[in-house]
Amino acid sequence: MTEYTLITGATSGIGYALAKEFAGRGHHLILASRNLARMEEIKRDFAARRPGQEVVCLQTDLSLHDAPEELFDRCRDLAVTVLVNNAGVVLETGRQIDHGLQDSMGMLRLNCTAVMKLCTLFGKAMCARRSGYILNVASTAAFQPMPFTALYGASKAFVLSLSEAMHLELEDCGVGVTALCPGLTDTGLFKGGKPNVPGWIYKMVSPELTARCAVEAMYRKKLYVVPYFQHWLIVHVARFLPRSAVARVMRHIGKVRHKVRFI
Ligand SMILES: NC(=O)c1ccc[n+]([C@@H]2O[C@H](COP(=O)([O-])OP(=O)(O)OC[C@H]3O[C@@H](n4cnc5c(N)ncnc54)[C@H](OP(=O)(O)O)[C@@H]3O)[C@@H](O)[C@H]2O)c1
User: Fold this and answer.
1) Domain of 14, in residue numbers
2) What end-to-end distance do the CA atoms of the chain give, in Å?
3) What pLDDT shows up at residue 148?
4) How many folded domains does the chain comprise?
5) Where does ligand 1 bind, in terms of residues with CB under 6 Å?
6) pLDDT value of position 144
7) Structure confidence at residue 57 as a pLDDT band (50, 70, 90)
8) Which residue's CA is the nearest one to ligand 1's atom 16?
9) 139 Cα to the center of ligand 1, angstroms
10) pLDDT number for residue 36
11) How many Å lie between the centroid of ligand 1 and the Cα of residue 187?
């Protein structure tokens, strides 16, 4: 039976880089996101490079209520051996009280609920087969509070915590669960423009580097991975500082971001 790697949100950024990385390793792919035309374009491009490699395009808006269950049903006859929960969005910077509840709920359904549902449904099937890999895209935003992008940070903390707990729950049935925690990565996520910070202070890394590190960590069944050393160092140094101090530093960074509006 043909085995597939399912990637949500593979039309751009980190998801697209992951699709290229898995395709380069010979995987057959299922791409799941809203933009069908872009997915078909990727399919044509991959087919031209690697004849015989299958790419299935499934249009879905994972911020809708039953979309994850429907996606699982559409994949029922396909053996999904790798699940990548990558699709995610961030709201504009601002205080949480200034965001509409509808926007907030839409983000939570995509960033959290869809990840939980797909992990549960595909994780169960993988566990029954006693093999498989789940790669969940969290963020370095998961490690501390993120004033002015509060809900995004909270949503990624959810993904990190869920992934780490499921990693330990599924270890015994041969299923690997890895949380990918990228720092700033050069993608279209930042709708208002990109941050202009010198690289020695904070480097924005390429989605290709992020994807390569992610797939290697996934195959090594690591609990989590922060792809770039500088980002890894910042996360781990912050763990030794008082939580209140880290939160205040993040509030300062959040305020600067809000002023220059690069999210
Ligand atoms: N860029 C960073 O600095 C960074 C850092 C840490 C973590 N991350 C995380 O990395 C992941 C990918 O983000 P990115 O930076 O690569 O951003 P991106 O280029 O904007 O990609 C987002 C992807 O998610 C898909 N998507 C958005 N809304 C969707 C929906 N409702 N249903 C289905 N798919 C949807 C988009 O596809 P369609 O538009 O075709 O639906 C797109 O392929 C996210 O989870 C993000 O939180 C990013």
Assistant:
1) 3-260
2) 43
3) 95
4) 1
5) 8-15, 33-35, 38, 60-63, 86-89, 110, 137, 139, 182, 184-185, 187-189
6) 96
7) very high
8) 13
9) 12
10) 98
11) 9
Antiparallel, parallel or unpaired: β 175-180 and 224-225 = parallel
Predicted structure pTM score:
0.96
Task: Please give the Cα distance from 72 to 54 (Å, whole number).
Answer: 18
Tell me the CATH number at 197.
3.40.50.720
Instruction: For residues 145 and 125, give the distance between their C-alpha atoms in angstroms, rounded to a whole number.
Output: 34
Distance in angstroms (rounded) separating the CA atoms of residues 202 and 198: 6
Q: Whose CA is nearest to atom 25 of ligand 1?
A: 9
Ligand 1 mean position, distance from CA 86 (Å): 6
Mutate to test the pocket of ligand 1, among 38, 137, 163, 235 (most ligand atoms within 8 A of CB): 137
* Tens digit of each residue's pLDDT (9 = 90 or more) over 79-132: 999 999 999 999 999 999 999 999 999 999 999 999 999 999 999 999 999 999
**Type of residue numbered 234:** I
Strand partners, 4: 28, 80
Nearest Cα residue to 70 out of 61, 80, 83: 61
**pLDDT for 202 beyond 90:** no
Q: Which amino acid belongs to residue 263?
A: I
**Beta pairing, strands 79-85 & 132-137:** parallel
Distance (Å, rounded) from C-alpha 207 to C-alpha 155? 21
Residue 138 near residue 183 (C-beta atoms within 8 A): no
| 3 state SS of 214 | helix
- Average confidence (pLDDT) over 165-173: 98
Stated length of the chain: 263
Q: Quote helix, strand, coil % in the chain, to nearest 5.
A: 50, 15, 35
Give the list of residues 6+ apart from residue 62 with CB closer than 8 angstroms, or none: 8, 9, 32, 33, 68, 71, 87, 109, 110, 114
Supply the mean pLDDT for the chain: 95
